Amino acid sequence: MSNSLNLANTAFMLICASLVMLMTPGLAFFYGGLVARKNVLTIMIQSFMSLGWTTVLWVAFGYSMCFGPDWHGIVGNPMTYFFLNGVALHTMFTGNDAGIPLVVHIAYQMMFAIITPALITGAFANRVTFRAYFMFLTAWLILVYFPFVHMLWSPDGLFAKWGALDFAGGIVVHASAGFAALASVLFIGRRHVIENKPHNVPLIALGTGLLWFGWYGFNAGSELRVDAVTASAFLNTDLAASFAAITWLLVEWARGRQPKFVGLLTGAVAGLATITPAAGYVSPGSSILFGIFAGVVCYFAVTLKNRLEWDDALDVWGVHGVGGFLGITMLGVLASKAWNPNGADGLLFGGVDFFGKQVVAATVCSLWAFLFTYGMLWLISRITATKVEPEVEERGLDVELHGEEAYPLGV
Q: Residue 315 belongs to a domain with what CATH number?
């Protein structure tokens, strides 16, 4: 392991951390455009709340739970880096030989922790009290996100030692958030006022652009250094997003006779979520397949959700949950050591065992996220109201919960 500072890798990782940080405001714009005018600020503050509160938890004990000394392969010791105890100016990250300071790794991984619970908020948009969300954000990070990071990204983690792979967060971020979203939808129930028409499509486009831009830091940065794998992960990210966007548009156009801009944008996000676990382990040709499958499968997952009348307001399960699960499974088929010697060969290249490990890891983690989320929401509901009253929904959560308006009359 390198103990000397690599300036190029350090500069690159600081840029990537900045890109991933930008994704959370991007998500706020994306979700803000999708909801009704009277609920814009409520959904946006939930993303920005994660930007602040998750940082507090991360430096207190979150990084330690993720990357501290192992406890049974499930979680790290929360006291090792308690409020960054023991982290000095020249302390180096020892997870690889990239030559980056430990503070860079702490900052980069923190940005992942910030956006993951924010993704879930789209599922229960327009109907959850802020107090319940605050409690949910705290409990979900501690009981779901931090253990997942340790199990998959810490060298001592249960799934990491077993041989399961997740390059940039198909399980850790997207499947976990997506199946947590499904649990929250089923527990909290349907909205009293169903408004599924976006109030501001340009805002959705702005959010998608920021997410897409930030995703290069999300995926390419997960190599934690600059090399050929970094470059292929960058290209794979764009290819999957583009092919998924066009595929979603074409499928929706064929079924509804009109090409929809929101469909194009949603398809792009589905492609980004699906390629995330595999970006640094597959070829550019394979990433095209990831995009096409994402566009079709995630579109029909959303269609199924509508048919079953699950009130996942902003399609978090269909896009992130299904996309993440699909990506981690397709990685089990299409992974190739020719594109990353530190990866694995998938089913197409003789990796039968690896495919099985990917399916098991995706299934176990999705179930964990679903069950823990449902259980913690039940506990939170015993402490405080989780769902707003129907009259609050009618008048809008912005004014009722926060005393603010995105578009005041006369302004």
A: 1.10.3430.10
User: What are the residues facing 75 on neighbouring strands?
Assistant: 71
Which structural domain range is residue 309 located in?
7-402
Contact by Cβ (8 Å): 287, 238: no
Instruction: Tell whether 259 is covered by a domain.
Output: yes
Tokens 């934690």 appear where?
Answer: 224
User: Which contiguous run of DSSP H or E holds residue 75?
Assistant: strand 75-76
Over the chain (411 residues), the average pLDDT of each successive run of 10 is: 84 98 98 96 98 98 97 95 95 94 98 98 96 98 97 96 96 97 96 88 98 98 97 98 98 94 98 98 98 98 96 96 98 98 97 97 97 97 96 94 87 52
Q: Say how far residue 199 (Cα) sits from the centre of its chain.
A: 24
**Distance from C-alpha of 183 to C-alpha of 368, rounded to nearest angstrom:** 11
* pTM of the predicted model over 0.90: yes
- Let me know if residue 408 belongs to a domain: no
Helices 261-275 and 228-256: angle between axes, nearest 10 degrees: 140
